[in-house]
Design goal:
Blueprint lengths: L5 E6 L3 H12 L3 E7 L3 H11 L2 E3 L2 H6 L5 E4 L6 H10 L3 E4 L7 H14 L3 E3 L7 H11 L6 E9 L20 H16 L4 E9 L10 E8 L4 E7 L27 H6 L4 H9 L21 E5 L2 E6 L2 E6 L3 E5 L8 H13 L7 H20 L3 E2 L8 H4 L2
Parallel strand pairs: 1-2, 1-4, 2-3, 4-5, 5-6, 7-10
Antiparallel strand pairs: 7-11, 8-9, 8-15, 9-10, 11-12, 12-13, 13-14
Helix pairs in contact: 4-5, 5-11, 7-11
């Protein structure tokens, strides 16, 4: 007999919710029963589709007795306040990446969830992608020996997609580190066991009209001797999806005709008009993502082990062994982000935490700050808030 669907409330009906919407619609293990959003248009659209209650504040949503878990999809700088409200009312929490902007807020969020006895999961991030999970499983079986080096890189036009003003201010969680780098950091930490020890990095802030970090390159060291290089540019004219078989980040086929579309859309817009353009990507106001024919991804990733190299693709993992080369498929299911909802359902129904807990999210956030600090000082930065992938070990 299947268990009762998790009764989920949603805080924020913007772009993040839109990206999760196909998964919520397709997975019967989750039932959307309430939402909080400042835009009445979005609340009415939610009530019309799901029959749940629309709340004007997250506090009201957290107090709703029908809700047993909350997906927090509000802007980064609001996460700490909203996680605290959910924990205060005893709700399990799925909070969109990053966990928070400041490490002090992250500490408080982890403490609040622990004190309330609720699960705090950070995601979705691309560390939940099925090919990443498949590679992690291969690595955990040690069939190829130890991981020695990981290379992860991604080139996009991220900085030239519609942004609200705070998304271009680093101190409010803007720039590529908190929105994009966190994906890459999560993936690399997961593949390398989680316990990073040191970061050396440089960043680029090259466009004065968008005054925040738009690029970085980092070297990350791990406790077991493995190391990883992470490179990202949100200024890019070259699109690294070319190296992913022309599959876009969300898993859809990428047409060459779309080249340059983001920059063209911003031509002649002031900040107010740009922010208004972004609202066209929110629930109840904008088009929904096209159905994906592949898994989501976050650019080329290569894992070099003792006896094989693993190349992650939108469809699985290509294995380059000592004497043979083979491909291991990651089947595409009916639920786009099924692994994220697997984690939520197991946490709420079985009291089983995924790797991506609040502690995990705090550790990845620490790496973001370390990249910024290393770039500013020119020195390596030691990491002190890291954790492994074994949650039983973390809570022992």
């Amino acid at each position: 007999m299947t268990s009762e669907p998790v009764r989920l409330g949603v805080a924020g009906l913007g772009r993040a919710f839109m990206l999760m919407l196909p998964s919520f619609r397709a997975d019967p293990r989750v039932c959307l029963v309430a939402a909080a959003a400042p835009r009445e248009e979005s609340r009415r659209a939610f009530e019309a589709e799901f029959g749940g209650r629309g709340h004007a504040s997250v506090d009201d949503l957290a107090a709703d007795p029908e809700v047993e878990a909350i997906y927090i999809a509000t802007p980064h700088q609001m996460h700490a306040e909203h996680v605290a409200a959910a924990a205060r009312h005893g709700k399990h929490i799925l909070v969109d990446k990053p966990l928070a902007v400041s490490l002090e807020d992250a500490d408080a969020m982890v403490e609040a969830a622990g004190a309330a006895g609720v699960h705090l999961i950070v995601g979705p991030s691309h560390s939940f992608d099925a090919p990443v999970a498949l590679a992690r499983e291969m690595i955990s079986r040690r069939e190829f020996g130890a991981v020695r080096m990981v290379q992860a890189f991604n080139y996009t036009d991220f900085l030239y997609r519609p942004r609200r003003p705070e998304e271009l201010r680093t101190e409010e969680g803007g720039g590529v580190l908190f929105s994009q780098g966190i994906h890459q950091i999560d993936i690399v930490r997961l593949l390398c066991g989680g316990r990073a020890t040191q970061i050396t990095a440089m960043t680029g802030a090259w466009d004065p009209t968008r005054p925040t970090e738009g690029a970085y390159a980092a070297l990350m060291r791990f406790a077991d001797g493995a190391f990883a290089t992470l490179t990202y540019s949100g200024y890019a004219h070259f699109d690294s999806d070319i190296w992913m078989g022309d599959v876009a980040e969300l898993g859809g086929e990428k047409s060459p005709e779309g080249y340059g579309r983001a920059r063209r859309a911003l031509e002649g817009l002031d900040a107010e008009a740009e922010a208004k353009l972004k609202t066209t990507r929110t629930y109840g106001a904008g088009a929904e993502p096209a159905k994906a024919s592949h898994h989501e991804h976050f650019g080329p990733i290569l894992v070099l082990c003792d006896r094989a190299d693993l190349r992650l693709t939108p469809d699985g993992v290509e294995v380059f062994g000592d004497t043979e080369r083979r491909f291991v498929a990651a089947p595409l299911g009916a639920v786009p982000r099924e692994t994220v909802l697997d984690a939520l359902v197991k946490a709420v129904r079985e009291d089983r935490a995924p790797a991506q807990t609040g502690r995990w999210g705090r550790a990845s956030l620490e790496v973001c700050h370390a990249i910024l600090r290393s770039a500013e000082t020119g020195a390596a930065v030691d990491l002190t808030r890291q954790c492994g992938t074994n949650q039983e070990e973390e809570h022992a």
